[in-house]
């Protein structure tokens, strides 16, 4: 470790003590060799979360086939936006209003934030 400073109740340390230059240099050399060989590393993929569609929305989609068809064609991000919007509603009346609006928009083929999309 570093030297003890009598004026302060702490140790004064140099960054070189922590960086371990030999180890750092070996990592850089290994990475350079792999890069020259053309080795590509794979990213660890996170498991995808399952989409949970609220019961109210599922019931309403069963009644309106046009909206259900549009909902199935939406990408997962749009489906998640609608599902999260329904789940965020605390009151039953709010939830019902959102379901009604969502079904109307889906029947028209609109995503949740259709108002803000470029035309």
* Order of helical and strand elements: EEHHHHHH
Looking across the biggest beta sheet, what order are the strands in? 1-2
Work out the count of structural domains: 2
Strand content: 5-15%
General shape: elongated
- Termini gap: 62 Å
Instruction: Provide a count of the helices.
Output: 6
Structural class: mainly alpha
Query: Could you tell me the radius of gyration in angstroms?
Result: 28 Å
Taking all residues together, what is the mean pLDDT?
A: 85
**Largest sheet geometry:** 2 strands, antiparallel
Which percent range fits the helix content? 55-70%
Task: Give the low-confidence spans.
Answer: none
Strand runs, count: 2
Note the quaternary state here: single chain
């Amino acid at each position: 470790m570093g030297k003890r400073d009598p004026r302060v109740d702490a140790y004064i340390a140099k960054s070189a003590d922590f960086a371990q230059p030999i180890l750092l240099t070996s990592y850089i050399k290994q990475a350079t060799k792999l890069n020259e060989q053309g080795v590509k590393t794979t990213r660890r993929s996170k498991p995808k979360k399952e989409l949970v569609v609220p019961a109210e929305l599922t019931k309403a989609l069963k009644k309106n086939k046009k909206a259900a068809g549009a909902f199935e064609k939406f990408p997962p991000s749009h489906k998640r936006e609608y599902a999260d919007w329904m789940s965020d509603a605390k009151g039953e009346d709010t939830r019902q209003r959102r379901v009604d609006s969502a079904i109307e928009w889906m029947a028209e083929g609109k995503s949740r934030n259709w108002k803000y999309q470029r035309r």
